[in-house]
Amino acid sequence: MQTASTNICERLFNKSICEISLLLNIPRSTVSGIIRKWKQMGTTATQPPSGRPHKMTVLGQHMLQHTLCRSRQLSAESIAKDLQTSCGLQISTTTVRRELHGMGFHGRAGVSKLYIDRCNAKRWMQLV
Q1: How far apart are CA 19 and CA 16, in angstroms?
Q2: In this structure, is the dihedral angle defined by the CA atoms of residues 103, 106, 107 and 109, taken in order, positive or negative?
Q3: Does the pTM exceed 0.70?
Q4: What is the pLDDT of residues 17-50, one digit of tens each?
Q5: How far apart (Å, rounded) are the C-alpha atoms in residues 83 and 98?
Q6: Distance, CA of 55 to chain centre
Q7: What are phi and psi of 95, to 5 degrees?
Q8: Residue 12: which domain range?
């Protein structure tokens, strides 16, 4: 049984690549790539993505961000244990660090700030 896409492809094969690209208003390289893919694989469907799927789900990322915002002093190991108990995610500390880095959180020391009391605030306002 032939599908509609098969019929369309068979009809378009009678035309040149330039005619097809002008007819569909797409580049010639795209048309030739689609035709090549059709001849080799018999379909133009894309292949499934390569590689292993992510360990962290969207819910896990939200929980990770919530845990970090609650207390920024936690270590990656304690965050991994907390996620294991709350969400049931079995992730390593390296994965936690990688996800935090992807979210924009980095393990850096905070900037040292001067203690500002009333006297220092008055002096500062007089300088400015």
Answers
A1: 5
A2: negative
A3: no
A4: 788 788 888 888 888 888 788 778 777 777 777 8
A5: 15
A6: 13
A7: -65, -40
A8: 4-41
